[in-house]
Design goal:
About 75% of the residues lie in helices and about 0% in strands. With about 170 residues, the chain is mainly α. The protein has one domain. Helix 2 packs parallel to helix 4, helix 4 runs antiparallel to helix 5 and helix 5 runs antiparallel to helix 6. The protein starts with a helix and ends in a 13-residue tail after the last helix.
Length: about 170
């Protein structure tokens, strides 16, 4: 941890001392609301993808955003990095960026507030958040071809099954 990281951490925490009215929101965002926003963005991308002509491709791409989050969280934990929340958020945002830019922008806002809330509450340092976001985004983009290929195969199988409405809003 560098001096700039410590200074920024202390500066944010000095602000937190004087903004007691914000504590409840920041704590709620750090432990649940931020993840809920990311999950809702992924769910919305899946729902919107079901209505496209290329539904299996769109649905598998949305599913990759969630899968990439799980991979990033696992890798971050395995490397003992404290920014697993940011890694998950960075992966979801990057996965959505290649799926649905509107939802990706919403998720990006949620991810940045999540990262800030973890610093604001004193749970983690700014560098933990930056590294986590970058690791998550890098994993999501780097593993995307393999991840979406597997998920597209699965989506096509589901589309041809009685569960077809999970993949396509219309029967093909």
């Amino acid at each position: 941890m560098g001096a700039a990281d410590s200074t920024l951490f202390r500066d944010v925490n000095r602000v937190a001392v004087h903004t007691g009215w914000l504590h409840g929101f920041m704590t709620a965002w750090a432990v649940g609301l931020g993840f809920a926003v990311l999950g809702l963005c992924v769910a919305a991308a899946w729902w919107r993808g079901r209505n496209l002509a290329a539904a299996p491709r769109a649905v598998s791409s949305a599913a990759w955003a969630a899968g990439a989050g799980a991979v990033a969280m696992t890798v971050s934990g395995a490397l003992s990095l404290p920014g697993w929340q940011a890694a998950l958020a960075g992966a979801v945002v990057a996965g959505l960026w290649l799926t649905d830019r509107v939802l990706a922008r919403i998720a990006l806002g949620g991810a940045l507030v999540l990262a800030f809330s973890l610093v604001y509450t004193g749970a983690q340092y700014p560098s933990d958040q930056v590294v986590g976001l970058l690791i998550g985004a890098g994993l999501a983009l780097g593993l995307r071809p393999a991840g979406t290929a597997v998920l597209r195969w699965l989506a096509i199988k589901v589309e041809r099954s009685p569960l077809h409405l999970l993949v396509a809003a219309h029967r093909i």
